Structure to design on (66 residues):
């Protein structure tokens, strides 16, 4: 059986980290290989306000479990 390989596209910067972390976790739990790709091949940088700040709100506990 061939292992699934999932490509998750991301913008280079200012994205919501839950948009990648939740799908990544679901794929990893299934044993699938995951590759992230950005627009210009740079390391993706999420919106810093969404990592630390009031915008996360109730999602913070779920992100810490990922």
């Amino acid at each position: 059986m061939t292992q699934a390989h999932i490509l998750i596209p991301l913008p280079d910067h200012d994205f919501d980290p839950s948009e990648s972390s939740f799908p990544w976790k679901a794929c990893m739990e299934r044993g699938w290989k995951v590759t992230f790709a950005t627009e210009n091949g740079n390391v993706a940088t999420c919106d810093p306000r969404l990592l630390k700040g009031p915008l996360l709100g109730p999602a913070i506990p779920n992100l810490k479990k990922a």
Observations:
- The first strand starts at residue 5 and ends at 10.
- The first helix runs from residue 18 to 29.
